[in-house]
Structures are given as C-alpha cells and as structure tokens.
Amino acid sequence: MYPIYEPIGTKEECKEVNIGFPPQQQELPGFEYKMCPRPISDNTDYIGSGKLKDKVAIITGGDSGIGRAVAYAFVKEGAHVAISYLDEHIDANETKAAIENSGGKCILIPGDLRYPSTSKEVVEKTLNTFGKIDILINNQGMQVYQESILDISIEQLTKTFETNVFGYFYLTQAVLPHLKKGATIVNTTSITSYEGNANMIDYSATNGARTSFTRSLALSLVDKGIRVNGVAPGPIWTPLQPSSQPLDEIVIFGSASPMGRAGQPFEVATSYVFLASDDSSYMTGQVLHPNGGTIVTG
C-alpha cells in the first residue's frame, strides 16, 4: 500500500500567493504528491448522471493532473477506467484508492508509451479485466523549458515527439481494432498549438501535430461511427509545471490568462466527459478550449 501524502511545506507556505504559486521545482515527469499546493482534481459538487454508464475508458497519464481529474469524473458518470502511466506509482495508487473508495473500478498499467509494446500491453490488460474498450483518452505528455531552440538537444527533441505524438499513434493503433460504432477518442493537445510558446518550441510543435492528428483521425473514422475530438487546455496546475518550468515562471503561472489565474484539473475534466459521451454526438474533429478566456481560432 502506498501512503497518501500531504503537500510538502507548511500550510502557510502552500497557500497560493497573489498570482501563481509558491516557487517549487521537481524533475520530470513530476509528482502530484509533492506539489504545494496540491492540484484540485475532484469537484465534490459534481454529481454524475450516468452519461458513461458501464463504458470502459483507457486514460493515459491518468495517475495525476488532468488525467486524474478525468478519471474521477468518468467514474462519477458510471465508467470503469484503465489508467496508463509511466512510473509515478504513489500518485497512481492514490488515484486508484480514491476511485475504489467511491465504489468505482480501476486498474493501473505502468509503462512507457514511447514503445508500441506498451500500448499492446495496455489494451490486453484492459480487455482481460473489463472485456471491452469504449473510450480512449490520449493524454500523456512532457515539456521542457528552454531559452532558445539552440538549447534543444536531439535527445530532448526525440523524447518529446516520441512521448507526445508517437505514443498517441501507437495506442490508437492498438485500440482501434477493438472499438465499435459509437466509441470515442479524445486527444489532449494544448493552447500552445494555437499560440506557440517561445520557450517550449518542441512541445508546441508536438501539440500542433496532436491537433492535426485529431482532425485527420476524425475524418478517417467518421464512416465507422467513431468520433475523435480534442481538448486544448491553457495553464492548468499539474505536475507538468513544477517539473518543467523555472521558479520565476511558477510564481506567476497562469496570471497572463484573461481570468488572471491558472485553472485546476477538475475545471478541464468535464470537457472530456462531454466529448466522450453522447452529449457531443454531432461533433467530431473539433477541439474544446478550457483556457481561462484566451481567444484562439480552431
């Protein structure tokens, strides 16, 4: 059993400052149990209405951040979830415990989605446990802050694309033969796909690819009755931030949005519920933008 950790630091240290958050850094991939303050993944006022009753969803990066919030919301809507994650075992087991304590069903499948064999394992274990797959949430990702494109190494460039783009392709290819008419795929992309980011050029480029992947895959699968949409969050307080951004960026994180603050994971999760459910039955190839009010096109 993994313990449930409290945020590192005193209660006073973990209060949000005027804008942004207390300065903190981690190494990639980042751990939610170390964050100060913790992200808010569960909206306790949210009551499900059976929109995903008895559906089976694979959620990558579901151990923490947006993926954790999506898992919580899906379970409230009646879904069973298979959570794929890299190696953040404490975070993943916290998520699983919370789901099971609420009466939901969840399995954990660790592994590196940069490799096709991991995708095959995720699919096999999900089918062995739940017998079917109805929803795929491609959500894993990495980003690294660099002052210049000249600082982006071949190793970083390759790993970012393998994680953020190749992994989406591999898992979609592994899942697709098992999806039936009415199934849905939701891909996480980012506001950087539309605005760019001077200090995360490779990350922004992968999100451009993920947005295009979403649109192209939607066109490819529309005749099969499988819908494909995306979510492009703006600044959201997740482990990705303290593990990839310098301290001076953390303390102002989210303040540039029109709402003047970063979003919390639970504020993004309902976009995935909408796109995964029949509420969005006339939508495919589209992207939703929970980003604090920034106007983007597409």
From TrEMBL:
Domain of life: Bacteria
Cleavable signal peptide: none
Keyword set, alphabetical order: Oxidoreductase
InterPro entries: NAD(P)-bd_dom_sf (IPR036291), SDR_fam (IPR002347)
Keyword flag Lyase: no
Keyword Plastid in record: no
Similarity comment: family membership: Belongs to the short-chain dehydrogenases/reductases (SDR) family.
Name of protein: NAD(P)-dependent dehydrogenase (Short-subunit alcohol dehydrogenase family)
